[in-house]
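Cross-check.
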Amino acid sequence: MSTSKVRAREQGQKSYHHGDLQHALTREARSLVEARGPAALSLREVARRAGVSQAAPYRHFADKEALLAALAAEGFQELEQLTLEAAARHPDPLAALFAVGEGYVGFVRENRQIYQLMFGSVRKRRDPEVAAAGEAAFGVLVDAVRACQEAGQIRAGDAPPLALTVTSLCHGIASFWVDGRTPDAVAPESLVRMALGHLVEGVGTGA
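Predicted model, tokenized:
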């Protein structure tokens, strides 16, 4: 056996014994998806990149779909954290709401392939982990809407449906951007800010 193969096997064993195998696999899987898209993912290729045996990934993932689901859940967790941090930078509730919307499309700009995975076939299969992570990310927007309502900046009412409207707006603009259907000279964040401005005018308190 060559020195490189011995080293790879030792690295794989070390990762497994130290409890890092799952992290190593998801890291390599994400790198592959970002470079080539979800369709290019295979457990064999991920194992090769991680320097472990072809059987090693099955210790953590039943199949390729389970690994894709883990990546999608990770994407939603990152989206949640990003939008939480964006909102926290603005004491004014309405500014925080706008920041959450801009953060959403900003995430898509940096994670195009993961975004498509998050809302693709994995989402449609209703994987529990993905669903929970998606709801948590949506919860950031619901809280931002409620804060605006409590501050009297938008009219009172049931926050989740309004938050869903905002999400649909952000998602639509992000999807158009991914498909190359937005003006090249205009950043999607700017489009979201403009669209949210029109929406807020429509649901304002009228004061």
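Confidence is low (pLDDT under 50) at residues 1-18. The chain is about 75% helix and 0% strand. Passed to J.P. for a second look.
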